[in-house]
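Our preliminary data section would be incomplete without showing what the modeling component actually yields. Below, a chain of 485 amino acids is followed by its predicted structure, encoded as tokens that our downstream tools consume directly.
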Amino acid sequence: MNDIAFRSATELAQMIRNGKMSSRELLDIYLQRIETYNPRINAVVTMDVEGARLQAQKMDELATNGDFIGPLHGVPVTIKDGFETAGMRTTSGATIYENHIPRTHADAVQRYVDAGAVIMGKTNVPKFCADSQSYNTIFGTTNNPWDLQRTPGGSSGGAVAALAAGLCGLEIGSDIAGSIRVPAAWTGVYGHRPTHGIVPFRGHVPPPPGILSEADLSVAGPLARSADDLQLALDLLAGPGQWNATAYRLSLPAPRAKTLKEYRIAAWLDDAAMPVDDSVKACLAQMVAALRHAGARVDETARPAIDPNDAFRTFMRLLSPVLAAGAPADLIELLKQVAHTESEETELGQFARDATQMHRQWLSANARRHGHRRVWDEFFKDYDVLLCPVASLPAIIHDQKGEPIERTVMVDGKTEPYSILLRWAGLTTYVYLPATSAPIGRTDSGLPVGVQIVGPYLEDRTPIDFAQKLAGIIGGFEPPPGYAP
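Predicted structure:
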């Protein structure tokens, strides 16, 4: 029965609807797997077994009468600990929220619940969801099921580890700098960063609980074991929030093409400003070869007319104030001092200046962002998708020394700043574009590698559809060794 745990949420929901399995039976499978496998990876950090059993029983009673709440009726899910979940502790990995128990669901979580999902528990994140690794002083470190010495990524690390290990049917992530896409790539699952603004973000922590405004750059989006599930979940999640629901409706366009051969594909697989490790490039090259063998046309010279260094600096000028928004007054004062004393050539100096910039300076960066959006719009008149790395490296070995800004990583034997992990994801984040992370293979050492499929603004169905078709020629999710039946 353990093979059932790795089936897509779409398949699981259909099994329940057809009477082949009850929600309670499926819940028991996942609870048993959590008991067996979670101690290895520490992905699920808070559980509500009693509440999940009661909800599963309710789903089964409704199903007996032929009543189904929605597309996820009876499917057990876990929820990233950055999203508020009614009656269940939500910490965002921070001790200040260690005992925070919300009264209501985050908007995105509510949409899963309204579709019939059964919430079992919460999955681990870094402190305040602000790192490319998932660890904190409340729950400890989450390990990558493909290699326990490595991180599954952050900030949705617990979510992807749970999916990859077959501990849940579906998840939800948040992404401000790659926090959906990078963890998905590092664990061999699927993730979609939606077009900014189409999925309500209220109820995510940070910002602090009770804040109704939504921060620039941040999005909520689905994490799953198949591209089909990404589409199913996005259809549930996307739509106007509380402020706009009175008048606004969302109608996402259909995918731009019906077959791989019809897609106009650009591939940007490496760049001196964002160097990519040979182990990742080899998988990307194999993917391109498979596409061409399938009859697709791939242009490896096409690029939006934007300097990637300029793109990253613009991204960081917009990101840094968001990251510092909830910082205490004494830390802001310290950053102001650092901005005056630290060289602008260093990452610390740049961050201090960006985090404490004047509003007029942010407006200038915002204007630059919109200029870049126009360039991307022109690019997508000639191409339907852009294929590029999700990150420069496969999953890294745990490194919790100091602050993230002080760390480094190795790319083909050369030392690079830790921020290199954000560059490919940031390339499309600040311009609000949708991007799907899809598994494409493994390195010689067996680590998963993903591709970032970037689509035009508000055309989320296009990169997800491309991910579906790509899986048809190279395969999709595979369970990590030691977790499959």
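Residues 2-237 form a domain with the Amidase signature (AS) enzymes fold (CATH 3.90.1300.10). The longest strand covers residues 435-442. Preliminary results of this kind motivate Aim 1 of the renewal.
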